[in-house]
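Try it yourself: sequence plus heme C, in.
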Amino acid sequence: MMNNRIVLFCLVSLVLSAAIVFAHGQGREEISLHGGKMGDITFPHHMHHGVVNDCMVCHKDFPMEPGALQTSKKAGTLKKKQVMNKTCLKCHRDRKKAGKAYGPVKCSGCHIK
Ligand code: HEC
Ligand code: HEC
Ligand code: HEC
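Structure, out:
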């Protein structure tokens, strides 16, 4: 009797965690990021999955969790504008130089007031 309940509990937990991984695995399609005084950024996340091809290009500096940029900046593991300069702008500028399709390089291209 007891053993059956434990088995059932394990199965239910397994199905639930698989559903959570499935729902959150790729993250949100579009994410609103905090941009301080400059205004927030509407970031097309899934569009970048296609261009960038490697999650860790961005996620090496912050975890795959909602609000990770703000949480990491508050915890001091990430400097303000670090991701903007070293990840976002760096790639967009390098690609522009290389003559490839690139994302915004001007403030107002990302920060919407
Ligand atoms: C071009 C940069 C970039 C790439 C590449 C990228 N992400 Fe993200 N990801 C972000 C940003 C920015 C956030 C938002 C963090 C925050 O909310 O502060 C995020 C958040 C997430 C989250 C948290 C849930 C959410 O929707 O906020 C998950 C899960 C995630 N990403 C998964 C992935 C996976 C899987 C890949 C590769 C297929 C990937 N990301 C590639 C930038 C990127
Ligand atoms: C390619 C997109 C992009 C461009 C272009 C861009 N930013 Fe950002 N900016 C971001 C992102 C993403 C963040 C949040 C992550 C971070 O702080 O690194 C941010 C954050 C900021 C912040 C807030 C930092 C904080 O935590 O308080 C300021 C201020 C800022 N940017 C100013 C600027 C200025 C000024 C320019 C133009 C010279 C500019 N940004 C251009 C993407 C961009
Ligand atoms: C490794 C390269 C790379 C990184 C890193 C990257 N981007 Fe991009 N981004 C691109 C490319 C390439 C495009 C243009 C795609 C196209 O037009 O086909 C783009 C386009 C964009 C656009 C314009 C989307 C549109 O609808 O026109 C925004 C906004 C943007 N990126 C913001 C960001 C932010 C914010 C970050 C950092 C969190 C970031 N990008 C990191 C390569 C990158």
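One thing you can check immediately is this: The mean pLDDT is 89.
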